[in-house]
Design a protein that fits this description.
about 10% helix, mainly beta, four-stranded antiparallel beta sheet, about 40% strand, five-stranded mixed beta sheet, about 160 residues, single chain
Length: about 160
């Protein structure tokens, strides 16, 4: 009797642990491109942070610089070649506050870069102070895959 109960118990554990559960809240899709945000000093984010923060001086207008790259992974297993970064040209990206208010649109150039300059007031900040943070979202579509990237702009002296 004990042996039968033990076998039933082990069978139940195996059956329950073998089921793959989908995440009911987030449908994850691999990003179609690498999205880099470039700060005032010309340094790009590393591309792996979920919510990169870019500092900009409160005494001047906010300049948004981005660079979009497609990663060609054809030679990922060949250590002499590796992954190639290809600039994404002529891609339109919409910049919005996370509240949904549209700020503007950018289109990438031949180098995959785009720039947009706005006043702090256009971002909903009448009088910015050091530490003021604005939450942004960038949206677009590349190769029929919609994407959104979140960033933060933080004011500095």
């Amino acid at each position: 009797m004990k042996k039968t109960a033990y076998i039933l118990f082990l069978s139940a554990i195996i059956l329950l642990s073998g089921c793959e559960k989908q995440d009911p809240f987030v449908d994850r899709v691999v990003s179609p491109l690498l999205f880099l945000v470039i700060d005032d000093n010309g340094l790009p984010s590393n591309g792996t942070t979920t919510d990169p923060t870019v500092s900009t001086k409160i005494s001047k207008d906010v300049t948004f610089n981005i660079k979009l790259l497609e990663l060609d992974k054809t030679n990922i297993l060949d250590h002499t070649k590796g992954i190639d970064s290809i600039a994404v040209k002529s891609l339109k990206v919409t910049l919005s506050l996370r509240s949904g208010t549209k700020i503007g649109e950018l289109t990438t150039g031949n180098d995959g870069k785009a720039t947009l300059t706005k006043k702090w007031a256009d971002l909903g900040v009448a009088s910015p102070k050091a530490g003021t943070t604005v939450l942004l979202s960038w949206s677009g579509t590349y190769k029929d895959v919609a994407f959104t990237k979140y960033t933060r702009i933080q004011g500095s002296n």
